[in-house]
Design brief:
Two copies of one chain form a homodimer. Chain A has 427 residues and is an alpha/beta fold. Chain A has two domains: 10-53 and 127-229, Rossmann fold; 96-124 and 233-405, Rossmann fold (3-Layer(aba) Sandwich), CATH 3.40.50.1100. Chain A is built from 14 helices and 14 strands. Chain A has helices spanning 56-64, 100-106, 127-140, 153-165, 179-186, 199-210, 226-231, 234-243, 260-274, 295-302, 327-337, 346-360, 366-380, 418-423; strands at 18-23, 29-30, 45-49, 96-98, 113-117, 145-149, 168-174, 191-195, 218-220, 251-255, 284-290, 341-344, 390-394, 412-414. In chain A, strand 7, helix 5 and strand 8 form a beta-alpha-beta unit. Chain A starts with 17 loop residues before the first strand and ends with a helix. The model of chain A is unreliable at 1-10 (pLDDT under 50). Chains A and B meet through helix 4, helix 5, strand 8, helix 6 and helix 12 of A and helix 4, helix 5, strand 8, helix 6 and helix 12 of B. Chains A, B: Its EC number is 4.2.3.1.
C-alpha cells in the first residue's frame, strides 16, 4: 500500500514517541506514514513506540501537571510534544463515577463499582478520543481533507474536530439516515454526502475513493489513518488507572464494535505496567455485545478462535459491526486475562439504560446499556467478581439514541390543582 | 414565610461559609433556611458569606488542588467543606475554548475571544451547576423530595441529580411537551407529572403546592431553595477567571432568562476581587436576549429601570421568560459596568449556531446562538471592543434543540461510485 502524501516517512514527521509502524501479525516494521496494512502479510499495522527515555516518577509528574484532557498523556501517544497548543477539540479526562447506587442494585460491594462516562466528551462519545489522534496524524502527513464513512457518532466527531482544527471535512453516510443524525453531523458545516445505498455501499465506495487520485490528500480517519486513530482508545485505560490513584482495576467491562477499543485498552494497561506507573498484577477484561450483533460473544462461548460474521439487528447501532476486524484479538485478550465475552438482548439493553439513569443520573447511549446489562449478567452467572474493583464503560450519550427509550414517559397527568394531585397519589 | 422543615436555622445547618440570608433590597438578615422572600419587604433573599478567615494565597492553592468540578470552589459556596465526598453529579470545570476561528470571522483580535462551553456538564446545560447547589441545601434542610417546574433543561438536571444523590424527585411539566423532552426528563426514573395546562399553569400549581401540607418536605430548587440554587452561577465567573490564569476578562456576553445567571456572575467576579484572587480592574457585562423575548433589552434601550413583561415567541425556549425576576438588577449591572443589553432575531440565532459549529466545532443550544449572535451585533454597532479579552457563554447543548436547526442537511447525494462523486464536484 503506497503512502499518499509528501511527508510520509519517519524522518520527516514529528509524532512524538511514535517510532514506526509495526505489523500486529508478523512484526514487520515500516516508517510512520498513512498506511494501515502490512505489505508483507496484510496484517494490521500498529504504532511502535520508543519509551526508553522515560523516568517513571518524572513521567508521572509530567502527566499529573498536564491539561485536563487526553493531551496529558502526550508522551505516550503518536502526537508531537506541543500538541496541546494546536487547535483540536481536546477530548478526554471524563468522569470516573463511583457508582454506589448501581453497585447496591447489582450486588457489588460498596466503593467497588465505577462507570467511566465518556458522554462528557465534546461531541458526547468516545469517538472524540480517536478522531483527535487522527487529526494530529493528518496534520503531520500534510492532509487537508478529513473523511470517514459513518452512521452516526463518528460523523459528528469528525465534523467537529475538522472544523476546529481547520481541515475541510467530507463525511459519507447512507442518504436515508434519520434527520436528527443528519443534523448532528451537518451542523459543523463540512461536506456531508449521502450515498444512495446502505452502509456497506458507503464503505465500498470509500475504499474505491482512497485508491483513486480523487482521494489524494484525504485522510480517512478509520482507514489510512487507522493506526493513529485507534491509539486514542488507550487514553481510556490511562485515565481509568490515574483516576483510581494509579491503580489497575481488577475488572473492566468494555463494549465491542470492531473490537479495537478493547484491544487498545489492553495495550494501554500493558504500557502503564511496563512503564512502572501501575503495579504489575492481574486484571480481567470482559467484552460486551448486543445479542442482535454478537459475533465475538458467540465465538467466545463456542471456544472458537475466529469470528463468524453476522448480519446486525439490534438497537445498539453504534456497536452493530457484524464482521469485527479485531474480533480474534478480543477473544485472545478475554481468554488470556481470565475475562469473558457476553451479550444481552435489546430489552435488557433498555432496562440497563434506565437502571443506570435512575441510580447514577447518567443517561447512556445504547452501547452503555449493553455494558451495564452485560455486567449484571456476568455477576448473575458468576463470571464477574462483585467484591473486586470493576470499571464499566459508557461510551456515548443517551441524547443520541432517544428512539431506543422512546416509551419512557410521564408517570402521571393531572389537572393544575391540589385535589387532582392528591387523587393521583403523589402527596 | 415560615421555614418548612426541622433543620431550618443557621445553628443547625452546615453550609460552609454561608452565614445567613440577606435581603437584596433592604438588607434584612434571617438565619439560613428554605425561604426565598424577605419577611420585611418581600425582596429576594441572597446568601451572605463570612469569608473573613481566608488568606488569599492559601485559598488560591486550596482551589487549584481541588477537584475538576465546581467543588474546587467549595470555600466560596453555601456547601459543607466535605461536599466533594457526597453523592452529587459534580458539574463544572467545563472548557474555556480559545475561539480563534470564530474571532477571525467576527473581527476580534487573535487570542482575545473565548467560549465558555457549558454543554460539557453532566446533563449538558449550566442548570447542573445550580441544581448541584440546591441538592446540598436540600440535604442540609432535611428535604427528601426534590421538585421544580420546567419545560426542559431543568427537568433533566433535577432528575439526574436527585437520582444520584438519593432523593425522590417530582418534576412538573406541561403535559403536551415534545416526546423527546419528556424522555430526557423521564429517563432518570423520578416522578414526571404532566399538568393539563401551559407553563404558567404549572408554575401556579407549584406555588399552591409549596404552601400546602402536601408539599411538606419538598425542596423546589428554584423556589424555596432559590437562594442556594442561584449561587451555582457564581461558579461560571470563578472558572472563567481561573482558566484565564486568575485574570478578569475585559468583557463577558451572558444570556438572560430570569437574569439570575448574569447577576450571580457579577457577584462572583466581585467576590474574587474582594478576596484578592484577581486584580481589581474594570470589566463589562453584556446581556443577550432573543428578539422574541427581549424585555430586558427593550428596557435597556429605552433607558428604563424597570422591565415591562412580554409574551415570549422565540426558538430560544430556554431563555423565554417574559417577566424576568432579576431584570432590574441586570439593567443596573449592564449600565454600571459599561456593558449593554442586546437582542437578535431567530434567523440570527440559527446563523450564529451554525457559525459557532463550523468555526469551533461546538454545537450550541439556541441560547448559545443568542450569545454568539449578540456578540457579532455588539461588535458591529461598536459596543463591544474587539481588541479586548471577551468571554461568550454557551449554556447548553445543540442536541437538546435540534428542531431549531432541522433545515441543516446533506450537502450532496450521490450514487456509490467515483463518476457520481466527480459529477457532484466533490473531488
Amino acid at each position: 500500500m503506497a503512502a499518499q502524501t509528501v511527508a510520509s516517512t519517519t524522518d520527516s514527521v514529528d509524532l512524538g514517541p511514535a517510532a514506526a509502524l509495526s505489523c500486529r501479525e508478523c512484526g514487520h516494521r515500516v516508517p510512520l506514514g498513512p498506511v494501515f496494512a502490512c505489505e508483507e502479510c496484510f496484517g494490521p499495522l500498529e504504532i511502535a513506540y520508543d519509551f526508553s527515555a522515560y523516568d517513571t516518577e518524572e513521567l508521572r509528574k509530567r502527566i499529573e501537571a498536564g491539561p485536563a484532557n487526553i493531551w496529558r498523556y502526550a508522551p505516550l501517544l503518536p502526537v508531537p510534544a506541543d500538541v496541546a497548543e494546536k487547535p483540536n477539540i481536546n477530548p478526554g479526562w471524563t468522569k470516573l463515577v463511583q457508582a454506589d447506587n448501581l453497585a447496591r442494585e447489582l450486588g457489588v460491594d460498596p466503593g467497588k463499582l465505577f462507570v467511566k462516562d465518556d458522554s462528557g466528551n465534546p461531541t458526547h462519545s468516545f469517538k472524540d478520543r480517536v478522531v483527535a489522534q487522527a487529526i494530529e496524524a493528518a496534520r503531520a502527513f500534510g492532509f487537508t481533507t478529513l473523511s470517514c464513512s459513518s452512521t452516526g457518532n463518528l460523523a459528528g466527531a469528525v465534523g467537529a474536530a475538522a472544523a476546529r482544527a481547520g481541515f475541510r471535512s467530507c463525511v459519507f453516510i447512507p442518504h436515508d439516515l434519520e434527520q436528527g443524525k443528519i443534523v448532528m453531523a451537518a451542523i459543523y458545516g463540512g461536506e456531508l454526502v449521502g450515498i444512495e445505498g446502505n452502509y456497506d455501499d458507503v464503505n465500498r465506495f470509500c475504499s474505491e475513493l482512497i485508491g483513486d487520485p480523487a482521494g489524494e490528500g484525504w485522510g480517512f480517519v478509520n482507514v489510512n489513518l487507522r493506526p493513529y486513530y485507534a491509539e486514542g482508545s488507550k487514553t481510556l485505560a490511562y485515565e481509568i488507572c490515574e483516576q483510581l490513584g494509579w491503580r489497575l482495576p481488577d475488572q473492566l467491562v468494555v463494549p465491542i464494535a470492531s473490537g479495537s477499543q478493547l484491544t487498545k485498552i489492553d495495550k494501554g494497561l500493558q504500557e502503564l505496567i511496563k512503564l512502572g506507573l501501575v503495579e504489575d498484577r492481574p486484571y480481567k477484561i470482559f467484552g460486551a455485545q448486543a445479542e442482535g450483533c454478537s459475533p465475538v460473544s458467540v465465538a467466545y462461548k463456542a471456544g472458537h478462535e475466529v469470528v463468524r460474521p453476522q448480519k446486525p439487528n439490534t438497537i445498539a447501532k453504534s456497536l452493530a459491526i457484524g464482521n469485527p476486524a479485531d474480533g480474534p484479538y478480543v477473544l485472545d485478550i478475554a481468554r488470556r486475562t481470565g475475562g469473558a465475552v457476553e451479550d444481552v438482548n435489546d430489552e435488557q439493553v433498555v432496562d440497563a439504560i434506565k437502571l443506570l439513569a435512575r441510580t447514577e443520573g447518567i443517561f447512556a447511549e445504547t452501547a452503555g446499556g449493553v455494558t451495564v446489562g452485560v455486567t449484571r449478567k456476568l455477576i448473575e452467572n458468576g463470571l464477574l467478581d462483585p467484591t473486586k474493583t470493576t470499571v464499566v464503560l459508557n461510551t456515548g450519550d443517551g441524547l443520541k439514541t432517544l428512539d431506543a427509550v422512546a416509551g419512557t414517559g410521564l408517570t402521571a397527568t393531572i389537572r393544575p390543582n391540589l385535589d387532582s394531585f392528591r387523587e393521583a397519589g403523589l402527596a
